[in-house]
TrEMBL record:
Positions contributing to Zn(2+) 2 binding: K154, H187, H215
One example GO MF annotation: hydrolase activity
Cofactor dependence: a divalent metal cation
Organism: Spiroplasma clarkii
Metal-binding is among the record's keywords: yes
Keywords per UniProt: Hydrolase, Metal-binding
Binding site for Zn(2+) 1: H26, H28, K154, D272
PROSITE patterns listed in its UniProt record: PHOSPHOTRIESTERASE_2
Residues with N6-carboxylysine modification: K154
Protein name: Phosphotriesterase-related protein
Cofactor comment text: Binds 2 divalent metal cations per subunit.
């Protein structure tokens, strides 16, 4: 055990968690290529000027910190994100991710996730967190590190299944957490397998307050959420403004249900605006009108208030809970 101060690892360096202000716990500003492009062309987002306009609108709405959840090989663009971080120095805190996405995005025969041994991949992850990210995002074959470090590790799981590559990436994330204290965020496919992910990570020794589950809003089952919260982990609800899945009102009511049940300290909020037309500034470049990342603060938080969520709960969700969830676990370091 050490007496090190708690810290959050941003692109431009470590900061006191208390300095984060309002936090969007899962979002995207730049997404450059990768296997998601096979799913939809809207995943390509490489306009730095548009990304900066979008970030500015989030700041104008009261935001301060954003966790960008693009892992190596799946859209992460270190040079563009470094440029944005430098241009917003002193104005915004940006956190970048290492880790993995769901197994669907990796070749099951010859990807490095498949062929390289677990402990060697743990070393690759630890290096991204403690030395600096690979500017080529492990798209290989050359690794060149920048000074900026990853501040969170991502893992993806599939729809109602956790395949062997995903089990491997969960073990790697757990080992990386035990070595570095880094928080872990999990992409659950349509909100499924959250309890199984928790059980796996907890059994490997990860503390519950270093586990953040994403996309549970796509499985809008408040009783399921309660069982997940009973594990002591965080749920990062994302994607208000996604009426194609569920109306905002359902998400708002489910959040209120959890608050009323005493889980106010385990809820995080995000937009996860990871597609071109999910963002106002990108859309505008093609003459489209749309909502964007600021919607979380301009529309969804007011809805929470309208249905009776207290200001103290909103402060916890936007400001206080991220200070716990995103801080490195110092007790793991020696
Ligand atoms: Zn995302």
């Amino acid at each position: 055990m050490t007496n090190q101060k708690k810290f959050v690892r941003t692109i431009l360096g470590d900061i006191d968690p208390k300095d984060m202000g309002v936090v969007d716990c899962h979002d995207h500003l730049i997404k450059n290529g990768g296997p998601e492009m096979e799913e939809h062309v809207d995943f390509l987002m490489i306009d730095t000027a548009a990304a900066q306009k979008e970030l500015q609108s989030y700041l104008d709405a009261g935001g301060k910190t954003m966790v960008t959840m693009d892992p190596p090989n799946v859209g992460r663009d270190v040079p563009r994100m470094l440029e944005i971080a430098k241009n917003f120095k002193g104005k915004a805190h940006l956190i970048m991710s290492t880790g993995f996405h769901k197994a669907k995005f990796y070749d099951k025969y010859c990807s490095w996730l498949k062929t390289v041994g677990e402990d060697k991949i743990v070393a690759m992850m630890v290096a991204e967190i403690e030395e600096g990210m690979d500017i080529h995002s492990y798209n290989g074959p050359v690794v060149e590190r920048v000074a900026a470090k990853a501040g969170i590790i991502k893992v993806g799981t599939g729809y109602a299944t956790i395949d062997p590559l995903e089990q491997k990436s969960l073990r790697i994330a757990a080992k990386t957490n035990l070595k570095t204290g880094v928080p872990i965020l999990i992409h659950t496919q349509l909100g499924t397998m959250a309890l199984e992910v928790c059980q796996e990570l907890l059994s490997l020794g990860v503390k519950p307050d270093k586990i953040i589950l994403s996309h549970l809003n796509k499985n809008p089952d408040k009783y399921y959420y309660e069982k997940v919260c009973q594990q002591g982990v965080f749920i990062a609800f994302d994607g208000p403004d996604r009426a194609k899945y569920y109306p905002d009102s359902l998400l708002a009511e489910n959040i209120k249900y959890l608050i009323d049940k005493g889980y106010q300290k385990q809820i995080l909020l995000a937009m996860d605006a990871g597609r071109f037309y999910y963002q106002t500034a990108y859309s505008a470049t093609k003459g489209h009108i749309s909502y964007g990342i600021a919607y979380m603060l301009t529309h969804f938080v007011p809805l929470l208030k309208e249905i009776g969520v207290s200001q103290s709960a909103i402060d916890d969700i936007l400001v206080n809970n991220p200070q716990v969830a995103l801080a490195f676990d110092n007790s793991k370091r020696n």
